[in-house]
Amino acid sequence: MALNVKYDRDADALYVHLGDKPYSHGQDLDDERRIDYAADGTPIGVELTCVSLGVDLTDLPRADEISGALRQHDIRELA
Question: What is the tally of structural domains in the chain?
Answer without folding.
Answer: 1
